[in-house]
Specification:
By secondary structure, the chain is mainly alpha-helical. The protein has helices at about 1-20, 25-40, 40-50, 65-85, 90-105, 110-135, 140-150, 160-165. Helix 4 runs antiparallel to helix 5. It is elongated and about 60 Å long. It starts with a helix and ends with a helix. Mean pLDDT is about 85; it is low at about 15-20.
Length: about 170
């Protein structure tokens, strides 16, 4: 029971330290999920090009089978993206239904590249939906353009003169 679980945990900690297994920084994960939630398709696409999702470095081992491991990480990612998007204003039922749909699709994938493609499709789909949700709250074309510019440039200081020039 509990003693056996503690022994397994201790053994795993020792193995992880011996093989220098470390998880990805939380800030990297948070920034990706925040970009999806914000509808920042540019930032999401940039992250996807780096192929961080399929990079085993920094990815925890949930299964010794590499494909199953990736599927489990996909499920975790789908669950987190749906929660972030709900927090950002997406309807619960929409977010959960999308998550279920993508998890069912991942379940029948037979290769890492299929899962990677599905991860990209899911991430961009949620981000596009979030962008539409944010735009529904906006009225004028100029304000819509400004909001898009701001979301795509959250990493730098933005001046009113830039926004005026952009619109």
């Amino acid at each position: 029971g509990l003693v056996m679980l503690k022994n397994q945990w201790s053994k795993k900690e020792i193995e992880d330290s011996e093989y220098a297994i470390h998880h990805r920084a939380l800030s990297e994960e948070y920034s990706f999920f925040e970009a999806v939630k914000d509808g920042n398709i540019e930032a999401v696409s940039k992250n996807l090009k780096e192929e961080a999702f399929t990079n085993p470095e920094g990815m925890g081992i949930l299964s010794k089978n590499p494909l199953t491991n990736l599927k489990y990480h996909f499920v975790v990612t789908a669950a987190l993206i749906s929660r972030y998007c709900i927090e950002g204003g997406m309807e619960h039922e929409t977010a959960y239904s999308l998550s279920d749909l993508y998890i069912q699709k991942a379940d029948i994938c037979t290769s890492a590249s299929q899962i990677s493609q599905l991860h990209a499709e899911m991430s961009v789909d949620y981000a596009q939906r979030m962008k539409k949700i944010r735009k529904k709250q906006i009225f004028s074309k100029q304000i819509t353009k400004c909001v898009d510019y701001i979301y795509n440039n959250l990493h730098k200081r933005i001046f009113i003169s830039e926004l005026a020039q952009y619109t």
